[in-house]
Amino acid sequence: MDFSSKLLENAVNEMSQLPGIGKRTALRLMLHLLKQPKEQTQGLSKSLQQMRDEINFCINCNNISDTERCEICANPSRNEEIVCVVEDIRDVMAIENTSQYRGHYHVLGGKISPMDGIGPSELNITSLVEKAKAGVINEIIFALSSTLEGDTTNFYIFKQIEPYDVITTTIARGISVGDELEYADEITLGRSILNRIPFENSLKSS
User: Fold this and answer.
1) Is 193 within 8 Å of 161 (Cβ atoms)?
2) SS3 sequence, 55-109?
3) Would 118 disulfide with which of 113, 136, 162, 174, CB 3.0-4.6 Å?
């Protein structure tokens, strides 16, 4: 792809590093920005820089937040004794959109995947086990994607918290095996949360 401007080429190269955006899409976006008032581009640039510099991760659940504790953890009407374990922030958004869950979350930051070099130590698991050990959690809901990596992560956490007095459940298999949680429709996902089953039962059926 030939560029008449090195500045444009650099911008396209940077934009094309984002997931799902190739060189042609990046070029189309950059040309669109060039047609807009400078204030709009400057506003976009400022918001991206501010997000990167100032965004926090909740000290309780690892969800993204503008403050030390996210709005969910800081909400006194949420049940802190029930914790839904999810892979990443997109899954928190997906479950919140169902309006069927009123507990807290625990964002792992990924799934165990030896093929990708991701082990338990790379994930936010230790703090969850510490909560279970401290007796501040009554129930842990496993809401990871129905994939081999998701099931492996569920089982690893289950074995870590097994010695403690914590109920473990998993979302009902209204979510198809192999599906990523964030792509499930809100009704199916909401029913899966409401109709969750004991985690031990999911082991027997798999």
Assistant:
1) no
2) CEECCCCCCEECCCCCHHHHCCCCEEEEEEEECCHHHHHHHHCCCCCCEEEEECC
3) 113
CATH 1.10.8.420 fits 6-51, yes or no: yes
What is the CB-side half-sphere exposure of residue 187 using CA atoms within 13 A? 0
Q: Tell me the pLDDT tens digit for each residue of 72-109.
A: 999 999 999 999 999 999 999 999 998 989 999 999 99
Contacts of 26 by beta carbon, 8 Å cutoff, 6+ apart: 11, 12, 13, 15, 16, 18
Which residue intervals of the chain bear CATH 1.10.8.420? Answer: 6-51
Question: At 120, phi and psi to the nearest 5?
Answer: -55, -35
Tell me how far apart the alpha carbons of residues 180 and 91 are, in angstroms, rounded to a whole number.
9
CATH 3.40.1360.10 domain extents, the chain: 77-205
Taking a C-beta distance cutoff of 8 angstroms, is the pair 189, 175 a contact?
yes
Low-confidence ranges of the chain (pLDDT < 70): 172-192, 195, 197, 201-206
Say what the alpha-carbon torsion angle 147, 151, 156, 162 is, to the nearest 10 degrees. 160
Distance CA 6, CA 142 (A): 49
* Cβ neighbour number for residue 98 with a 10 Å cutoff: 18
